[in-house]
Fold:
Amino acid sequence: MSINNEQWLESIKQELDSNILGFWKNHTIDDLYGGFYGYISRDLTINPEAVKSLVLNTRILWTFASAYRLTGNKDYLQLADRAFDYVNDHFVDREYGGLYWMIEAAGQPLDTKKQVYGQAFAIYAYSEYYRATGNDTALKLATELFHTLERYSYDTQYKGYFEAFTQEWQETKDNSLSEKDLNEKKSMNTHLHIMEAYTNLYRVWQSDELRAKLKELIEVTIKHIIHPGNAHFILFFDEQWNYKSEHISYGHDIEGSWLLVEAAEVLGDEALLAEAKAIAIRMADATLNEGVDVDGGLLNEAGPDGLIDDHKDWWPQAEAVVGFYNAYQLTGEEKYRDAAIGSWTFIERFIVDKEHGEWYWSVSRDGSPSDNVQKVSPWKCPYHNGRACFEMIERLSGAATSH
Structure:
């Protein structure tokens, strides 16, 4: 494709600053209850009484901490500080440790279960805030949470991590992350984001225990979670790693391909890094061959008999840009760079909301916005698209991919 790196870089910087971060800065601050609104619709209708999720608030914290670290823009620091204070004041369980899954608009606990996926995002956010600011409290919170997860969630028999617990860290039958997910003991998604969180924490806290756990997580991902035949992620498991799903999530596959390499790079284990790179290329290949539509957009999900969700959600498009470009950096093969540019072009044409800002939740196969009108919600946040821009700015600027 004809676009050069300078043009591409400029369009990404513009999108990040004006349309993504600018939207969150200008539209999401909750002056009534503090923190950030829990829900804003596509036409910018605010629900000031909407619940506030751990996922949304930790992702806002991560995004603005990272934005400040990379740009030095004090506006972003102010928003990161706001998110950090809000998470600590309202989500942290002072009695039992960990963070609540959901709170009411005014800040009281609503769903107090300890979803391990959410705890991972807190570690990810706290460690990024420490990277950006040097705030010792943030590092302390991140390391304490690491020890809490290892104490309660780690499976000493079969390795890996269990999905969810009660507020008191007791067993629960309510494991599901969302209504879309199976109610199983272990999932790809939780392990992917624990690995992501531990990777970021290891950048700033290189303890022997964390190193061992990060190494094991990479090995568990390669051994159990990536299908040895087709190089797709297996999505759900019982505690002994027996498969519980045959669905394919193309967005997670391409996201996981680059996060796996990043984890191995930060760990600094050369043999494991070589293995991770080889598998990442296979994962990118499988996604490129099966999941990319003729318009450059990434389809959502498939099953053994073909497509089961042909919508194109916002976040897989963001991950595709980074994942395919990562494969290009690993191989030098132009087909991956072309795919990354194709993903970005699709985003600009169809996913960016040119009227109200930020990105649509998804578009249907014909490119029209889907009937999901969420612009800010428990799962709709600035992390995937913001991070894709951060990553591509660093990579296109020639920065070291290992950060």
Observations:
- Residues 399-403 have pLDDT under 50 and may be disordered.
- The two ends are 27 Å apart (CA to CA).
